[in-house]
Amino acid sequence: MKLKKVLAVLLACVLVFGLAACGGNSSGGDSSSSGGGDTIKLGWLGALTGDGAVWGTCESQTLEMLIEQKNAEGGLLGKQIELVKYDTQGKADEVPNVTTRLTSQDNVSAIIGPNSSGQAIAMTPILTSAKTAGIATVATGERVTVDNGVLNEYNYRVCFIDPYQGAVVGSYAYDKLGKRKAAVLYDQGSDYSEGFKQYFKEEFEKLGGEVVIEKAYSAGDQDFRVQLTDIKNAGVDCMLMPVGSNGDIYTIVPQVAELGLDDVTLLGGDTWQSEDVNKMSGPRLAGSYVCNHYDASDPALKPLQDAYHEKYGADATIEINAYMAHDAFLLWCAAVEAAGTDEHEAVAAQLTKVEVDGLTGHIKISEEDHNPVGKEASIQTYVYDEANQVNVETFVEKYSPL
């Protein structure tokens, strides 16, 4: 009797482990294909903790909301969509492991994110090996899609790039604002900040302006008075702040006011875009100019804003990532539908063939550099609402460099 019981237990264990092995891959198929199964898996990676968590949280929540809406409408290709997401903690060295899990273990059809250029670049070898597309949202660094003249075959993005953004701000400062002497206060540990600084300087000085002084800081610094005092003494009429994290804005701007740089026009880019920046920067932010991917006053944004606040709360912060994630999701959906399958290579092949009208403009990905073709920048300024003690982003105009 004892021997029979032992054999029965062993047989049960074999059956349990066999069933577990059969059910381990919910997408179906082997590690080289994401085309089977009852659901379509979409991957996401970004910062849910650490530096950049406010952006990553908004981006992932937006995708969850959009997927919920799409599934309620019937999903894609008759299947429900499943979001598989991982936290990179805002660290580029976390990205390879996470990307490997998404492509080889989870068998996603594509990956949306991250919004950081450094993290997007770190994905490249894994995406190439797995032949799986990564669709970056706000990763504007040039090397994300083209590195030293070589196309990263499976890297795509829905945002314009740093050379363009830097040229827009440099040209606008000189041509439209009449600025001639500029300072730059930049994050020396950010690829984005370094690149923006470089391209701004090239454009501004090409037109006849002069970058008189450049001062660096490190992410997490709280006291900028030394750099700002040097900038004040340099006699500039504008200051570019291509921050790596938007939290730097509401730390720096009050100190700009404290030191009396009243006649210096502050300039920035897409990392300034945040409801927190608007609320926490104080009145000195008013009169600053930024380059953005969309018109913040566009009524077309309201349905997404309303849906987001309804789902996540009236006080939930909507970052630029919500709009960029929306457009990346539209592009991915169009590619899946055009491919007629969620198999990752087939989806990637369609990303340069489909076109969508997004919240940030018309999206058509170039075959040559995998960047969106012909997206214009929006120039915005800030107006301070004294009654509500908040800065209001105000659209000025669409603008391209001279």
Describe the protein's topology.
Blueprint: H1 2-22, E1 39-46, H2 53-72, E2 80-87, H3 95-105, E3 111-112, H4 117-130, E4 134-136, E5 146-147, E6 150-151, E7 155-157, H5 162-175, E8 181-187, H6 191-206, E9 210-217, H7 225-233, E10 238-240, H8 249-258, E11 265-268, H9 275-280, E12 289-292, H10 302-312, H11 320-339, H12 344-350, E13 355-358, E14 361-364, E15 377-385, E16 390-399
Parallel strand pairs: 1-2, 1-3, 3-4, 4-7, 8-9, 8-10, 10-11, 11-12
Antiparallel strand pairs: 5-6, 12-15, 13-14, 15-16
Describe this structure in words.
This protein is of the alpha/beta class. It has 12 helices and 16 strands. Strands 9-8-10-11-12-15-16 form a 7-stranded mixed beta sheet, sandwiched between helices. Helix 3 (95-105) runs parallel beside helix 4 (117-130), helix 5 packs across helix 6 and helix 11 crosses helix 12 (344-350). The chain is globular. The N and C termini lie far apart (90 Å). Residues 1-33 have low confidence and may be disordered.
From the structure above, extract its key features.
alpha/beta; 12 helices; 16 strands; globular
What is this entry, summarized?
The chain has twelve helices and 16 strands.
